[in-house]
Amino acid sequence: CEKEPSSYMWIYILLGNMLRGIGETPITPLGISYLDDFAKEEDVPVYVACLHTIAMLGPMFGFLLGSLCAKLYVDIGFVDLGSITITPQDSRWVGAWWLGFLIGGITSFLAAIPFCFLPKCLKKPEEANNDKTSYGLLENTGTTRKTLPPAKPKPRKCQLIYPFLSDFYTSLKKVLSNRMYFTFLCCSLLQFSSFIGFLTYKPKYMEQQYGQSTSKSNFLIGLTSLPPVCIGLFLGGLIMKKYKMSIIGATKFAFTMSFLAYITNLLHFFVGCENHVVAGMTVSYE
Hints:
It is built from 11 helices and no strands. Helix 2 runs antiparallel to helix 3, helix 3 runs antiparallel to helix 4 and helix 8 runs antiparallel to helix 9. The protein has a domain of 198 residues. GO terms for molecular function: bile acid transmembrane transporter activity; sodium-independent organic anion transmembrane transporter activity. It is found in: Cell membrane; Membrane. Belongs to the organo anion transporter (TC 2.A.60) family. It is a multi-pass membrane protein.
């Protein structure tokens, strides 16, 4: 070809993922904050575990949906399927990758409708939040102080013009100065980085190493990898509720489980298969 064909469809996918991320992001911080404010402290771990468990079920169904869509030809609905002579096992086969975005978008839109019927104002529980043990622990660590509210200083010009940015900067500074939260944030970054890498490359590894199709690889990953994670999240919430762990107790529990997971993951270095014989790469052409 004198000129390679180019397409700008990736821009629509980028904008769609950006809008999806904007819509999904408030659910986790605002939802957890709502549960922490309006639920009993001993029940919060179970509710948060349920929230994260349901969030993990989404990728599992996504893999299963991707497995189904990969069996359908990319131009389904636009071409006569009877005229297609290749099968999903053919290297030239391209599945209907766009169909998952369409189904997921419609489902997300329908799931967002009930949020429009939530009340604007919610009643606070009778007991004050400062009676919680977690508040007392943070108080002892110096995060909060029982002092009289200081007199409001005169607002500066930048605060009058950009009150939101000023408040955001102040809140962000206070949050990042909390050593326990900052350490937890670093641990979460490391865990999610490894988890995303696992989900990204494990299907490709199964395709190349075991000769599985894209459809079957997604199906196996979604069926075997994510359900144990959901079970672990839910059991963790039940254990925290049963033993009524404080922040220090939850930190020790999380460290123990993470260390055991690290030791178990080391076994991956001892499990593997030899590379396929490829002429010109692993063996000579002769």
